[in-house]
Amino acid sequence: MTWQSLTGASGAWSGVDWTGRAADTASADPYLTWADATGFADLGGPPAGWLRVIIELEENAPDGSPLTAQSFAQSLEGANAGWQAWIRVSSIYRYPPAALEQTGFLTAAVKKQFFSELDTTLKGFVKRFELGMPVVPDDLIDAASPGAAQLAAGTGPVFGPAASSSAAGANAGAPQMVFLGVMDDGLAFAHERFRSTGEPSTTRIDYFWNQDDAAGTPPGLHYGRELAKADIDTLLARCTQPGQVDEDTVYAQAGYINVRKRWAHGTEVMDLAGGLRPNPLHAATLPASAREQREALGKVRLIGVQFRTAGRTVRDTSGRWFAVHALDAMRYILRRADDLANGATYCVVLNLSYGYMAGPHDGSSVIERAIDQLIALHPDLAVVVPAGNSNVLRCHARVDLINGAPQDLTWRALPDCATPSFLEIWLPENVNPSTVTVRISTPSGDLSPVISVKTLHVWQSGANVLCTAVYLDRVATGQRSMILIALAPTITRQPARIAAPAGNWTVTVSNDAPANGSLEIHAWVQRNETAYGFPMRGRQSRFDDPRYKRFVGGMHVRDFDDVKPVSWIRRSSTLNSIATGDSTVVIGAYRRTDGTAATYSSTGPSLRTTVRDGPDATAISEDSPACAGVLGASTRSGSLLAISGTSAAAPQVARLLACAKVLGNALPVTPLAMPPYSVRDWVGKRAQAEDPAPAGLMANQIGTCPGTAKPPVVPLGQHAWVPALPAPRGGAGRFPSPRWKKRGVGL
Predict the structure, then answer these.
(1) For the CA atoms of the chain, what is the radius of gyration?
(2) Fewest CB within 10 A of the end CB: N or C in the chain?
(3) From the UniProt record, which GO molecular function terms apply (predicted)?
(4) 3-class SS string, 634-691
(5) Which residues, at least 6 apart from 96, have a Cβ–Cβ distance to it below 8 Å?
(6) Count of Cβ atoms closer than 10 Å to residue 611 Cβ
(7) Which pLDDT does position 285 carry in this prediction?
């Protein structure tokens, strides 16, 4: 096995030299460079036809005219019709709601030629792009077809011109319609929580888009399958006997297999966000305030999106698929909400209970900028995301890199990991990347050459690339310089492929600037564990440092950093990589019975502390030490299961926002009328007002813990043992629980 430089070489698939591109060309996705160098070995093989990308456009076209996603899509039907041989754009972007006509982000289906056109035909149009291909374990490559040569017509949503704008009257009082959009995996749309209580039972869901194509279907520009309310009601009526809905038959006739198991992440999330108990006797027993909220929630219009190809993409926790399909999902919900409003004022609350660990963490990723732009342009939109669950996973490193004093980062790759592992090293903003270099030492001590900017190195045996180091001067995944290090799986089921060695990989980072000083370097290990409910494939890699303190008093998990940490592994700045934008509402998690912050709930600050210092608020993710998680709907009516994590906390706040919008209590989300971050401000103030953390309660709880007989006294400023999260854990407060006396969903 030897280290080799691929600097200056054209990619075997794309034919593009990713290390030698000019400074005025579009920023490239370093993960595409890795895929090109490895022959797409972990992405199901080289694409044979069309694949999907997410694109940020320049503000102006080369001729100086304003450039938007809509104008770009329209040009493919007019002046640039010839480009359709290698790039096509969905009607979602060609016909947006009037308020979103100025958006500059879109997704596209492209062929290989697209990448060679970036520096010629598309120069001045594309600012940056990211690939949208999921990681595929090698035991699924045969089932993961890279696609046909031609795009099929597809059966997904196709749009025409939008209705007249409702933006002009959006600020006139409370909105007439409130839409709650949930994008997830496994949304049991026939569940009783999403149906009316009348006879016959009808759905509360206005639209449901399953992004997954039918098995064996060629890829389509308008992909997936859409069900309108009338379609779902027809299925429910056809499968009702007598008075009971046969939900299995509903899903079978709809061709929807994503809820065949008794538990699905999306069903619980959608229930926590917008589910209602159908029993009217339960409603009668609720207090007046809860009954009012229940009535308000009954007026909320639901729209659901099943993320594409759950068997492949959703279980790829590295998120290489996420930006493309998440942007499509959000744009779909916003367009359908606009259609249903038909010119009336309305608001939309979106819940996106997904997250990843690596990224720039300064709000500059493509999907974060796209979300912020949607919020800024839409007359009334809130997007709720979880803070993340990586607080104690040892996947974040912070180093003050002194000139001439290299720093070793130990990265532990676990055995029997069937998916690749990724490490991203991010440089400070506006730093010359030529001053920072890295070297990589394998577990066996094989040392790489010095890796500097605009280079590509691989460690390989024959045709098997086991480690790839990509160091581009500009990356599409953020607006600062980043070094990507990718490891091949540590176990393989292909006889001809060699697995990467498990163990400690040492990455040495050096500051070679000519002047004395230090650079604040951050590194994140990308999420890699196997998603719950899927067969074991990935195993989460992590950093390793003997000085890192994992426990308090030898027993309790330490969920905070010391004031002066001795280890370079940090719990701070572990926010979900889509939760550092300017305008999203970010929700952490805590335990109901004693107000303890969940140890896994990720913390701030982002790398722009003036914009975000942590979660905006917290909500319940654990009922008690003995009852982990909060109860939500199983995939079949009449049963409940518990779900943990900040992805369970976020939809509860989305629910609260939607109800407040119906009741007219929430602030309007209009940038022209309110200061920036108005929804964030409302959520933070509501959290503090509901749970002000009185001093007497704080005094009683400090130093006590039901888990030990003689607990250590933990300073208030460091440990989240009180109702309001202190600064080191980030966040402004939390909401009261509707489950204080019993375990169950309250509304």
Answers:
(1) 25
(2) N
(3) serine-type endopeptidase activity
(4) CCCCCCEEEECCHHHHHHHHHHHHHHHHHHCCCCCCCCCCCCCCHHHHHHHHHHHHHC
(5) 69, 70, 103, 162, 331, 334, 335
(6) 16
(7) 65
User: What is the edge-to-edge ordering of all strands in the sheet holding 51-57?
Assistant: 87-88, 105-110, 51-57, 126-131
Asked if CATH classification 3.40.640.10 holds for the domain at 177-391+576-695, the reply, yes or no, is no
Strands 301-306 and 177-184: parallel
* Interatomic CA distance for residues 110 and 151, integer angstroms: 10
Could you tell me if 426 and 523 are in contact, meaning their C-beta atoms sit under 8 angstroms apart?
yes
3-state secondary structure of 185: coil
Instruction: Record the tokens describing residue 675, joined without a space.
Output: 């200061």
Distance (Å, whole) CA 583 – CA 577: 14
Return the bridge partners of 447, or none.
Answer: 441
Tell how strand 346-351 and strand 381-386 pair up.
Answer: parallel
**Phi-psi domain of 723 (left: phi exceeds 0; alpha: psi -120 through 50; beta: other):** alpha
Is the dihedral angle over the CA atoms 21, 24, 28, 30 positive or is it negative?
positive
Q: Read off the pTM.
A: 0.91
Which secondary-structure segment (H or E) carries 375? helix 366-377
First to last CA, the chain: 60
Buried b (16+ CB within 10 A) or exposed e, 267-280: bbbbbbbbbbbbee
pLDDT by residue (tens digit) across 317-358?
A: 677 889 999 999 999 999 999 999 999 999 999 999 998 999
H or E element at residue 330: helix 322-341
660 near 666, Cβ under 8 Å? yes
3-state secondary structure of 591: strand
Structure tokens at 373: 């732009």
Cβ distance 488 to 422 under 8 Å? no
Phi/psi at 441 (nearest 5 deg)?
-115, 125
The alpha carbon of residue 743 and the mean position of all alpha carbons in its chain are separated, in whole angstroms, by 29
Residues paired with 464 in a beta bridge: 461
| Identity at 180, one-letter amino acid code | L
Return d(Cα 167, Cα 97) in angstroms, integer: 10
* CATH class assigned to 396-557: mainly beta
The string over 658-678, giving b where at least 16 C-beta atoms fall within 10 Å of a residue's C-beta and e elsewhere, is: bbbbbeeebbbbbeeeeeebb
Q: Give the 3-state DSSP-derived string for 203-266, with helices as H, strands as E and coil as C.
A: ECEEEEEECCCCCCCCCECCCCEEEEHHHHHHHHHHCECCCCECHHHHHHHHCCCCCCCCCCHH
Residue 522: C-alpha distances to residues 168, 291, 430, 476, 670 (Å): 44, 48, 14, 18, 35
pLDDT in tens, 366-399: 999 999 999 999 999 999 999 999 999 999 999 9
Domain map (residue ranges) of the chain: 177-391+576-695, 396-557
